[in-house]
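In response to reviewer comment 3 from the previous cycle, which asked for concrete evidence that the modeling workflow produces usable outputs, we include below a single protein chain processed end to end. The sequence was submitted unchanged, and the resulting structure tokens are shown without manual editing.
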Amino acid sequence: MRVLTAILLLGFLSSASAQERFSIKSFCTHGPGCDRLLEPVYFGFSVGTMEYKEDLTVLNDPESRSVSLPSIDDSMSTWKVYGGYRFNDHFGFEASYMMADDAAGSASGNNAIDGNYSVGATADFRGYSLKAMGYLPTSWGHFFAGLGHFSNRSDLSFSASFDAFDPETIHSSDRFAGLTGNIGAQWNLDSVILRGEYEHWDFNEGNASFLSLGALWEF
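The workflow returned the following structure tokens.
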């Protein structure tokens, strides 16, 4: 967090005035974005597909002959809302909240106690992030990249069926945090800014990546 704080402070100090609107005309030669002034505050909404991977096999006991847990490797629909503040044409920060549909995985096997068994696991993925953002103005909008910290929660559900016993279902929740980054581009239109973005999260037993399209509005 110290690195993130330092980046945000550098962006603030590089701004001539925190209240002053800044222009991209000096970077433009043509296009709808060249005649407008950027506002420092923005809010947006994006939808897309998340690739979610979590290795639950690390919870298995190699010395045990009990049921083995599966890994999750799935894609699901995801949405995100976000907002931010730009100190100037090149630096800013952004906060976001995102939520994904359930991801699923399964495993099966046999042991002397349970006989044949199958295990299914589902997990959702939702949480918050805060990133320091960098922008590269162009004639049609911006390229951007961000780096920061996320804090997320995942609700897990395990369902197991056995030859020798009744089916069982177990629910649990897990909270985790780590490093997140994004990269993408924004296109300035008359009344809205379109955004294409790739975002990635790393956590202890896996990772998730989010490819999305969205729109944002300035204030």
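The CA atoms of residues 41 and 181 lie 21 Å apart. We consider this sufficient to address the reviewer's concern, and the full set will be provided in the supplementary archive.
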